[in-house]
Amino acid sequence: MKIKFLIASLLLIGLSNCGPAEEKKTGEDPVCDAKCQNESTTLKASLTSAHLGNYSDCPQDAYSEKPDTDSIGGALAADCDSDDCGVLNCEKASAILRLSSGGDDVLGVLVQKIELKNEAGDTVAILPLESVTRVDDNQQFSGRVPAGETVSIRVDYQGPLNVNALVSDQSDDGDSDSRLAGPGVYLQITLSSQNASDVVVKSPAVSTIPSVDT
User: Distance (Å, rounded) from C-alpha 154 to C-alpha 135?
Assistant: First the structure.
């Protein structure tokens, strides 16, 4: 009898602890990815300076739609007779950007595209990226922009050997410097990141570095 009473008591205790099944909540937000979770984080970028370099003495290092640059290189170096000539007018194209974060740290910042555009806004070339380094220590840029800080980066890329040839089909007038003049072109640099929207930076008109007479 005692055993039956004990079993009945245990059953009553178990039933008293059982409530209705918890209803599944509806209308909850879907799982957010990194950008959804950091909607307040923004990447800010501005251009400090930019130029198209100078490849007069190293045409093989320049961007060209036609890889064969022997004839152009020979024309540009025709006046070079000294033993130490050949590297003086050789400077990579580069741009200096200032990056900052609105909100949390911006992570995984990448230079996605460097476009050379004409005055009408048409893309005449997509220039190959070579390297991205920090200006303060000349080390490779990690892609992180800490909140509340400004990071200056140097973007090195392949500048054009002959700007005029990319913009128009006009024939060269015979002056070697005219190959490097750059008729009203500018850069459009696109930056992406892991947790902020893409940013597009446009430069004013850019040109090559003037050649130094040897």
Answer: 6
